[in-house]
TrEMBL record:
It comes from Sander lucioperca. Keywords: Activator, Transcription, Transcription regulation, Translation regulation. The lineage of its organism: Eukaryota, Metazoa, Chordata, Craniata, Vertebrata. Belongs to the BZW family. The gene is bzw1a. CDD domains: W2_eIF5C_like. This is Basic leucine zipper and W2 domains 1a.
């Protein structure tokens, strides 16, 4: 028994010895394994010193930056590099220069405020980013940050930054998505965003044209957001138009007006389709449409096109050619009152005829339905014989021309004969 107890004590003692301890073996960390501390001071001093030596010679600046990339850590200190090139030193939050660090007087903000100088600076940035592609993303982030700091800069500094940004956008060095920063509530509220946008778009259009602006804005979904450069109480087409036209940017004003009109039309079309789907009375739809037409300053020709598209989009069409014509006639008969309310002018009737021609051509199942649709709308007093004859003679478009003219031939002959008979009856009466 004593032996057994000794054995148990010995076993417990062994267990105690095997218990893991927290004092592990220490390994000496090698120098290269330690993470380098972020310290831009030395980097800043090297860049500032180089810029002070090159001075205002931007060719020399570009060469210095090109060569320095091999020795200095651009990837790690990209923000510091761009801060110095733009403002002369590192920027503190809000846009003020950090007091305790070295600065240079040779930077964008101290340069001459003219387009030629800004174009030269754009070349410096362009060469730098082409040489060191990894700086591309950091540069965009820098521009976004600088735009948020606009209130911290002088008017002259803002103007230079605006001109530079416009040139960079025109040349595709940065994406138009950076303009998101201009929608900052405080910048918009104090009118900083709109004033900055004037200079920016002027230099952009000067470098390229309004089509370049339109294309870039559409690409990032900003073509319908220009009104947001103004506070909510001034966010109207009239105010935008006056502000930018007075500033010499009528092209931009026209573009924004057109975009707003397109947006309003899409919204109106969507609303009309919803009303039709709900089965709202046509009188109510007509009243609503007339009100919207007035509000959006749309012509009757534009309105009839929207109505036609809405009417034809609110139904699931049969895929069989022989059945779709019957379905279309029944459907259009139901909405003839609505169509009639917006064809009070000859031009509106022609617009509708052209819209029907294009629709029947673009939707292959409707190719044989064209004549029957026109005849139905003639009988419903939506289309007049004058409009149909005008369309037949010289107002049609090329789409499916031969097919549709052939379809309409007999009906047009009947219209002409009816017109002649009517004229001869009038002569006999006289």
């Amino acid at each position: 028994m004593y032996g057994t107890m000794c054995g148990q004590v010995s076993f417990m003692s062994n267990q105690k010895q095997q218990k893991p301890t927290l004092t592990g073996q220490r390994f000496k960390t090698r120098k290269r394994d330690e993470k380098e501390r972020f310290d831009p001071t030395q980097f800043q001093e090297s860049i500032v010193q180089g810029l002070n030596q090159t001075g205002s010679d931007l060719e020399a600046v570009a060469k210095f930056l090109d060569a320095s990339g091999a020795k200095l850590d651009y990837r790690r200190y990209a923000e510091t590099l761009f801060d110095i090139l733009v403002a002369g030193g590192m920027l503190a939050p809000g846009g003020t220069l950090s007091d305790d660090l070295t600065r240079t007087e040779f930077c964008l903000f101290t340069a001459q405020e003219d387009l030629e100088t800004m174009q030269a600076y754009a070349q410096v940035f362009n060469k730098l980013i082409r040489r060191y592609k990894y700086l591309e993303k950091g540069f965009e982030e820098e521009i976004k940050k600088l735009l948020l700091f606009l209130k911290g800069f002088t008017e002259s500094e803002r103007n230079k930054l605006a001109m530079l940004t416009g040139i960079l956008l025109a040349n595709g060095n940065i994406s138009a998505s950076i303009l998101n920063s201009l929608y900052n509530e405080n910048l918009v509220k104090e009118g900083v965003s709109a004033a900055f946008a004037v200079k920016l778009f002027k230099s952009w259009i000067n470098e390229k044209d309004i089509n370049s602006v339109a294309g870039s804005l559409r690409k990032v979904g900003m073509d319908n957001r220009l009104m947001e450069l103004f506070p909510a109480n001034k966010r109207s087409c009239e105010h935008f138009s006056k502000y930018f036209t007075d500033a010499g940017l009528k092209e931009l004003s026209d573009f924004a007006r057109n975009q707003q009109s397109i947006g309003a039309r899409k919204e109106l079309q969507k609303e009309l389709q919803e009303q039709m789907a709900r089965g709202d009375p046509q009188k109510e739809i007509i009243a609503f449409t007339k009100e919207e037409m007035k509000k959006s300053n749309l012509s009757e020709q534009a309105m009839i096109n929207i109505i036609w598209t809405s009417v034809m989009s609110c139904v699931e069409w049969n895929k069989k050619e022989e059945l779709v014509t019957e379905q279309a006639i029944k459907h259009l008969k139901q909405y003839s009152l609505l169509l009639k309310a917006f064809t009070s002018q000859g031009l509106s009737e022609l617009s509708l005829l052209l819209k029907i021609q294009e629709y029947c051509y673009d939707n292959i199942h409707f190719m044989k339905a064209f004549q029957k649709i026109v005849v139905l709308l003639y009988k419903a007093d939506v289309l007049s014989e004058e409009a149909i004859l005008k369309w037949y003679t010289d107002a049609h478009v090329a789409k499916g021309k031969s097919v549709f003219l052939e379809q309409m031939k007999k009906f047009v002959e009947w219209l002409k004969n009816a017109e002649e008979e009517s004229e001869s009856e009038e002569e006999e009466t006289d």
